[in-house]
Amino acid sequence: MPNYMYIFRGGQNKSTLSPEELQVHVGKWMSWMDCLKEEGQLIEGLPFTGVGKTVTREVVTDGPYTEGQELVGGCFIMNASTLEEASQIAYNCPIMVEGGSVEVREILSVPELVEN
Q1: Is the pLDDT of residue 63 over 60?
Q2: Closest Cα partner for 89 from 4, 1, 2?
Q3: Residue 107 — very low, low, confident or very high, per pLDDT cuts 50/70/90?
Q4: Checking phi first, is residue 8 left (phi over 0); if not, alpha (psi -120 to 50) or beta?
Q5: Cα–Cα dist 66/3, whole Å
Q6: What is the mean pLDDT of residues 82-87?
Q7: Among candidates 102, 97, 72, which has minimal Cα distance to 87?
Q8: Nearest to residue 3, comparing CAs of 82, 94, 98?
Q9: Is the backbone peptide bond immediately before 111 cis, with ω within 30 degrees of 0?
Q10: 22 CB-side CA count, 13 A
Q11: What is the pLDDT of residue 68?
């Protein structure tokens, strides 16, 4: 079964949440992740810090990234039969109701990459 990476962008600015709101927010993510684990779909889920760098040949841009569309909040490695199935699973992600997005990409193994 192929693996897919979910890359989470945008969504709610967590730094503006009260401790109670943050607990509710995290609870929604944990509930969704628990369901994915039970179904055998979630392999790994990793959050990112708000600080980082974007590197190109000419420029290194430092974070933190203040604009939501710039923020990559984390990634999941998922099991799914097809890209369509992986995309359908992403529709239930809590980030969707926060105005964020999920990029879904198939992960190729090195042998697959060399063969193509």
Answers
A1: no
A2: 4
A3: very high
A4: beta
A5: 31
A6: 94
A7: 102
A8: 82
A9: no
A10: 7
A11: 47
Residue 86: exposed, middle, or buried by beta-carbon count in 10 A (0-12, 13-18, 19+)?
Answer: buried
Q: How far is CA 12 from the centre of its chain?
A: 13
pLDDT at 9: 86
Residue 89 · residue 5 · CB < 8 Å? no
| Ordered structural domains, the chain, with CATH | 3-115 (3.30.70.1060)
| CA within 13 Å, CB half, 50 | 12
Separation between Cα atoms, residue 62 and residue 113, nearest integer Å: 31
Cα dist. 106→20, 51, 73 in Å? 36, 26, 19
Element (H, E) at 87: helix 83-90
pTM for this structure? 0.77
